[in-house]
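Q: Could you predict the 3D structure of PiggyBac transposable element-derived protein domain-containing protein?
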Amino acid sequence: MDNYFSNVDLFKYLRSLQICACGTARVSSKNFPKAPKVDKTDDHEWNTLSGVIVDNAVLAAVWIDNAPVNLLTTFYTITGDCRVPRTRWRPRITSSNGKAIREYFQDAPSAAVVIPKIIDDYNNHMNGVDISDHCPHAAFSQVPTFP
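A: Sure. Here are the predicted structure tokens for PiggyBac transposable element-derived protein domain-containing protein:
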């Protein structure tokens, strides 16, 4: 789900309807808990995952990648065996956010990393949302267009 629309109240409502949801969220969104917030200017260890459960219904999680990734979910957990191995490419030297993970790669162009399952599933399934945003020329519109 797009982070512009994600908020705790929406995810609580979806949970009450027994609809599974997962999406990125803005820390400034309504009722986003203070506990998992991470300041972008602080140095944090890469691949750190933390979270807090809000009103016994929604998990608000933060994963430290090249930058903090804030998530809301109604069906994932972050305890136990919740990580999966994935191959990842080293960020370019010009990447301003890649400092934390670049140390992990050293001189190798790619490496096998273990990332949280919630992140892996979000990355694999987020492409189904807003297809019309990705290919506006292929989207159907009822409004006639003129060349």
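Q: Anything worth pointing out?
A: The helical segments are 8-16, 99-105, 117-125, 131-134.
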